[in-house]
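Field: COMPLEX_INPUT
Field: COMPONENT_COUNT = four
Field: RESIDUE_TOTAL = 1496
Field: MODE = joint
Values follow.
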Amino acid sequence: MSHNSFGHLFRVTTWGESHGPALGCVVDGCPPGLLISAETIQQWLDRRRPGGSRFVTQRQEPDAVEILSGVFEDDRTNGLVTTGTPISLMIRNVDQRSKDYGDIRDRYRPGHADYVYDMKYGVRDYRGGGRSSARETAARVAAGAVARLVLPGVTIRGAMIQMGPHRIDRARWDWSAVDENPFFCPDPVAAKEWEVFLDGVRKEGSSIGAVLEVVAEGVPAGLGAPVYAKLDQDICSALMSINAVKGVEIGDGFASATLSGEDNADEMRLGANGQPVFLSNHAGGILGGISTGEPIVARFAIKPTSSILTHRRSISATGEEVDLRTKGRHDPCVGIRAVPVGEAMLACVLADHLLRHRAQTGRPGPADYPLHRA
Amino acid sequence: MSHNSFGHLFRVTTWGESHGPALGCVVDGCPPGLLISAETIQQWLDRRRPGGSRFVTQRQEPDAVEILSGVFEDDRTNGLVTTGTPISLMIRNVDQRSKDYGDIRDRYRPGHADYVYDMKYGVRDYRGGGRSSARETAARVAAGAVARLVLPGVTIRGAMIQMGPHRIDRARWDWSAVDENPFFCPDPVAAKEWEVFLDGVRKEGSSIGAVLEVVAEGVPAGLGAPVYAKLDQDICSALMSINAVKGVEIGDGFASATLSGEDNADEMRLGANGQPVFLSNHAGGILGGISTGEPIVARFAIKPTSSILTHRRSISATGEEVDLRTKGRHDPCVGIRAVPVGEAMLACVLADHLLRHRAQTGRPGPADYPLHRA
Amino acid sequence: MSHNSFGHLFRVTTWGESHGPALGCVVDGCPPGLLISAETIQQWLDRRRPGGSRFVTQRQEPDAVEILSGVFEDDRTNGLVTTGTPISLMIRNVDQRSKDYGDIRDRYRPGHADYVYDMKYGVRDYRGGGRSSARETAARVAAGAVARLVLPGVTIRGAMIQMGPHRIDRARWDWSAVDENPFFCPDPVAAKEWEVFLDGVRKEGSSIGAVLEVVAEGVPAGLGAPVYAKLDQDICSALMSINAVKGVEIGDGFASATLSGEDNADEMRLGANGQPVFLSNHAGGILGGISTGEPIVARFAIKPTSSILTHRRSISATGEEVDLRTKGRHDPCVGIRAVPVGEAMLACVLADHLLRHRAQTGRPGPADYPLHRA
Amino acid sequence: MSHNSFGHLFRVTTWGESHGPALGCVVDGCPPGLLISAETIQQWLDRRRPGGSRFVTQRQEPDAVEILSGVFEDDRTNGLVTTGTPISLMIRNVDQRSKDYGDIRDRYRPGHADYVYDMKYGVRDYRGGGRSSARETAARVAAGAVARLVLPGVTIRGAMIQMGPHRIDRARWDWSAVDENPFFCPDPVAAKEWEVFLDGVRKEGSSIGAVLEVVAEGVPAGLGAPVYAKLDQDICSALMSINAVKGVEIGDGFASATLSGEDNADEMRLGANGQPVFLSNHAGGILGGISTGEPIVARFAIKPTSSILTHRRSISATGEEVDLRTKGRHDPCVGIRAVPVGEAMLACVLADHLLRHRAQTGRPGPADYPLHRA
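Field: COMPLEX_OUTPUT
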């Protein structure tokens, strides 16, 4: 089966191919009465939009979003508000150049989903990867923009922390640097080095992988569930659903394996205001599937772009061995554009869990169970 | 909300606390007509069962499974068969020793879900972690045993490949070694070293993390979906839902970040029988969310057991700062017992996707779309 | 596929056959902190229990419920409370007499699900109808008892309003009469007549259908949704899922077809307290899929018990034409025992929608949007 | 919560308001490789389209459908085929006349969802009923057109069988008459009478209810499930989700209540070809939640249009008592346009269950379990 929805209460369904007339999403379950505008959504789409630098595909897509439903402007309100009904968002495809893809109609590009599509569906839209094109992620970013409206007080940010073998120095982490280089890199020194590195990759017609980190601050304690709707599980699932992602971790992640119980356990104390304080955040803001109130930290690894200019061995749909290089306009490091996508997915998961939490407690935000003081 | 089901067509709902009368699961969606027996399920539970060595909790639980529904013995069949109706499996709790937990009734154990439970629910069953106890995983293993019945021809195996900082040598990988040491370690040399290492950890009252690997062989190409029911996404979600897991990766995983497009793409050729052959498996058997026919390889990192004998700083539910050490019977490396659990989760995901695939194609197994030969 | 769950946030999964060792349900999504006890659940089961009069099956089942999980007794609480985790309820089968069913092993009883089971599953548990036995409804009643805990202030009651061709006189409706006759009949005069009528049916070895009505009072306005989670839609689905139900209606139901727009529209005025008042309730408490605050009124029709002592023509699983009468212990009017089941299903749907509403508004009960006063 | 999806494997999500820029649906789960065209979908939309006669709203909507995704034209195929990915269908709103609705902005129209919308959402799009407008059903009809592609060999037809108090004579039932009168009436004599009757209703500015019947022929035995995905349950849920529906029944429906077990049970014999034959169809093609192979027969009652020209008492959102008549263009009998909608919903449910059945059996159509011949 094809399944194209995620989320339980804040549910997003995306649709559309890279080379069809349009793509979009339906956001179902957004609470009513939230101020919304196409401009708000557009600003997030613009962050993801290709064509911004020489390091991303040169395809020119304005990615202009249209809000087709679920909103209403009443003179009792200050502008457009959500009505609680499904919000349909559409983005027209503009710069498609389908002819670029004719020569791979019958050939399976290595590292791409071409072969498995044929195995699954028996028919595939070979233009630009069809449904598995990264263009689908524009719809995710639009949905994430709506999710952010459900999360006032929560800050969700992302960054690229490793390109190929080159990792940032976390001591130099500066969120303000993220928007000042073409890589969403929080380390200005690393960003300079990556520029040289990626120019080399690009000129060779090669590509390279990356590691990204997304962080949510301001998430209150108590979101999630202990067994199969774990907050970390749903975040991992959401990030893993992004194209080309091959690994996901929370907090110390794989490094936890090397820690002792003493080192790993985040100790607690009471803060100045008498509220619980964690003295470290190895857990990445989630214990037993439930948020602790500390920043939620997730990282995900993205493989190198599969479309490269080097010939690779493959086969054709007609049963011949072929050698194949992928022409066309592509990203030397698809990880770059995945930063806004990762943020959007994290926002959607948190919005969903906030609504789930409300269902349980009947309160606007997470539980505020007082400590059982004597 | 509490959610305790996973799977879309092969759906498992688990229930039960560590210290209640019983725990169990309902497996819904299992096809009819499959031979089943309590013994078949029991053998997998026995693999996971604590009490087997000095390296796992000394709690003595027979974990004897009862099949309460969904099966029928007819004289037209050779024994018990599934009927297509929900299979209810129950395991009685036997060795509970609730008094061990009285002293943490009002204290939040660091690294445990105690604090977040109170934040989420406002009430918690403090005996043994309640719902977030690793005992819940017995129900998963039972469900996984049923899932395996849906997957004839598929071999699902797991192993521990890293304990603390000590990684196996993959050149020495030997599946037959896995059952000959207390760690499910496929490297007999490493297993010897781990024994010494973990004895040290245990004697110090400390604990250590681990990395596990699960592999499914014989999975045909074509299972999964390109967007939100990606096979890798569902595997990650399932593995991440296991207690103490902090990271998951598929194929080359986080190492993909350092690869070039040329190195990462698995090339294809036609094999001796004219069928497609991949020349490598960096993808871990999944491309674009869909199985390739190569072995599916997933790894997951498990943090060290949070229950340790060293005092750690924490707070109480009554708002005081406390120092806390966890007495009781615990595992120095919970990762060990997670091997059968990881296998079970992988089996459940594959069974679910096999049924989804049938829905699409109307065929017993995955699509056998012939290559479009001239 | 077999599907055995209903509800979105308050989700019930039932399992168990008529002649297996036990049956039960898992109630997932029940909020934490609600007082609960086996006795509370048992009282509703006792209402449904067969063996109470000569008009229901003489099978003797104590239907004693065990709570296996999801509850906890803490000395800070006054007895057992829900913990927010799945509540597993089990009822052992006691009086099964499997041998009664041997002679229909290979024969399809007319009006029963025997034939379609074989067409769907290719294997069936022929003892007592297996999964399609009315015994499954005991699990529903147990779940409904939990649902009622979520709905303080809501009164849910049911009655039989027609037996065969004999309808009650609504002018004589008296809720207190319902528990004073073996038919849950609110009209004491009709109840007397039905007794004579049903004795005749029973002595002939025949059976008869019925119409039931369930009413929920105290449901606030605003529960439901305008399109595919309509409150009336979910109520109909829940009632239609009860064995032998062939029709469902809300408010004026089928009679609405004969009404003019003027007669059908429930007019509104402001009541003594300035709150909105409906002057009639043709809508049965639901407009556009959303509750109005008026009593919710649903009716459902139940066909006559299919097991009768008269020979009927049928076929065998081995392809022969046979004549068949069903021996064993059966109800001359299965509609009787469906009254507590209908109440339970209505309670489950309302609990589910209350939680959905909370998710949207973040308030314990339904929206209390003030009228937009000048 | 707002929920706007239905179906489990063949899943439809609709979006759009009466007076927004467009409405539409996403059909997810449609198998790949089915021939499809906008024209095929359009023909069903044209059947539902208002403006066809003086008996339906004079709103002029071309209801032209655009296929935005999920299809592909390859020169290996004879035209457009489904790809197995989500099919996004959009219909632009054209003739909206929003000013007609200004005067009910703050007033609750009796019989409409206006009041409950405010209670649920606290904000509403008052133009034309927003989401609860019957225009939403255009999206259902489009989805139903796709569902029919999944059901080759199944004929799904609908008819109006009662208008107000006037019921057809079933002895005169003639499917070919249905398209020859403005009422989808299968009885040509009744159709003539209804014309006179409805002209009277229309001229009075009043409205009237109706009863509709939908029938699916060619549905094989074995679709459905015995407990909570009963075929009849899902059909009832789907029909009940249509605007203004107040009752649903299957087969003999409410009349079953008056039948004896002997009369109600459909007897069986072997037909000329040795296949099972039912001698009657009181069950309406469904026993125990599973299809029997006989025609599936469902009826549903539709209340009179709530928009009428007579003044009715109501209240305003600002807390005043008002008298209200609804101007604008409306249907004197909304039941008429519900016939294609009922057909579409039945098609969607059957497509969903066919896919579910495939999942279980791994066969293209329903199980073909041979009778267990000696």
